[in-house]
Amino acid sequence: MGISGACRDLTILSVTPAGPVGGQYGCYYLEFDNPGLAPAVAGQFVMVRPACFGSDPVWPRPFSICRLTPDRLTLFVQACGRGTDVLCRLVPGDRVTVWGPLGQGFCLEPDTPTVMLAGGVGIAPFVEYAATHPAQHNLALVFGHRQPLSCYPFSELSQVVARAEAFEEKTPDDLPNFIELLEKTVAEYAGGLIVACGPRPFLLTVARLARRFGARAQVSLENRMACGVGGCLGCVEKNALGQYVQTCTEGPVFWVEELSLSEDA
Amino acid sequence: MSADTSVRLPGMHAKNPVMTASGTFGYGMEFAPYGDLRGLGGIVVKGLSLRPRTGNPMPRIAETPCGMLNAIGLQNCGVEVFLHDKLPRLPFAETPIVANLYACDAEEFAELAGVLSAAEGVAALEVNISCPNVKAGGIAFGQDPAMAGKLTEAVKKRAGDKPVWVKLSPNVTDIVGVARAAVLGGADVLTCINTLTGMSVDIRSRKPRLANVIGGLSGPAIKPVALRCVWQVCQAVSAPVIGVGGISSAEDVLEFILVGAHAVQIGTANFMRPDMAFRIAERLPALMDELGIKNLDDYRGTLAAG
């Protein structure tokens, strides 16, 4: 799966708070018209830059594809910085430059019991993953979150997969219990497939557990990117051989044994 | 009748002045899905060294107001991989491909120039004496006029018939002094400017935003500095100058031509949208028509006295 598609100026159709309280927590669905992005594999991403960025911020922002159909591109965005704040304040009709789908997506094995491990906004690509999976009865979801559950597309996913479990981390004291849940899950799926997306500490935990239990696991990294197409070498990650690999073109989804994940970046 | 955007540079004819800057356009093919590479005036590829380089630790990039910092550290595949795997895929017969080269000392620079001078498809050699992100060589070469001249001379001797471009650093007291030394050393073209050194810190983590602490600032934030440097250098030397620094529109291109540049390179703007250089090249003739500019030679360096 290489780079496909091209750079297109899309129109925002809607910016909708996710669930009844999504707006309070900065969680939104952004919907765009889709006049011709190439089909995506779940886990691939797009680069997004609204016309109103002008010269500042300079960079586009990368987002995993939450849902892509021939008519619509949907992104799940949490306003948490200069770029995402602007994006979540867009209104229907605003023009946004989008390029993608980019990078490598998640592996999809219809006959393999598969668990999706999601942390926070890392749940976004699993909407596409579950929607395009031909054997949803083989899918499970374990979701860790800090904002109210209704801020996330959890119920949308729990309706289609065979099993879904959510864990709310209310205080830092809850973290060991969540790690325990992850440990139990990774052990259970050691003979199956584990796909994970979320903040770096979450992915580090998943990678550590996968190694411990000898599980087959893929993680989707959220590294900072400038171009998204392999031009700048800014988003690199160290592979198992200690060489830098490009997250935008060789990832963002990697098998955990390919990487030597560290706290950096 | 559309305006004539063509540009003549030593040993090279470019269909338009819109080139891409080293380090911002990969090895070229990364951007092929976003436009026709043959529509560009030239492509300057990622800086090459004799052997592959790993580059600096991450994080390597940070966003700043109207710009960005990078400390990539010249990660590259090495000259042999470039010549065998990358260059043959580029439309070098139609678009000049410029090899940007980096080495740790003058001998290694000369050796690299020797390898590249024999390569069919390389239109010119751009000598990077101004990278702020490497310990050995890099910016130190570009801050000392005598060293810059000596290095240019060493490269020129091994460059055969390939034109030698020297990319200058703005991180100097007197860029004109370095420019003059490079021309005396045999530089055919000067590229102005490389990035400005800068840094960014996080008050919460109390850490620098780059693992390397210091990086190179680029983007629209540096355009006034680049324009000033190009203007000063154009006043002082007769060698053609290629302007680079914060250019993100056809209007910006004409600003640099107006102060004396022969051509320009698009850098950080390639990250703002991957078809940026193609769009600027396409827009330029219409803008020239709007302004009644028939060709760039007549417009170049016609800045009215202040």
Major β-sheet profile of chain B: 8 strands, parallel, barrel
* Main sheet: strand order of chain A: 4-3-7-1-2-6-5
Q: Could you tell me the mean pLDDT of chain A?
A: 94
Number of strands of chain A: 15
Mean pLDDT of chain B: 95
Number of strand segments of chain B: 16
Find the structural class of chain A using helix and strand composition. alpha/beta
| Count of alpha/pi helices of chain B | 10
Proportion of beta-strand residues of chain B: 15-25%
What does this molecule look like?
The complex is a heterodimer of chains A (265) and B (306). Chain A has 265 residues and is an alpha/beta fold. Helix content of chain A is 20%, strand content 30%. In chain A, the strands form three sheets. Chain A has a seven-stranded antiparallel β-sheet. Chain A has a six-stranded mixed β-sheet with strand order 10-9-8-11-12-15, with helices on both faces. In chain A, β5 (67-68) and β6 (72-78) form a beta hairpin. In chain B, strands 3-4-7-8-9-10-15-16 form an eight-stranded parallel barrel, surrounded by six helices. In chain B, strands 5-6-14-11 form a four-stranded antiparallel β-sheet, with no helix packed on it. The A-B interface holds A 3-7, 49, 53, 55-60, 82, 97, 99, 223-224, 226-238, 243-244, 249, 264-265 and B 23-26, 30-31, 33-34, 46, 54-55, 57-63, 65-68, 70, 72, 75, 211, 219-220, 248, 268, 270-275.
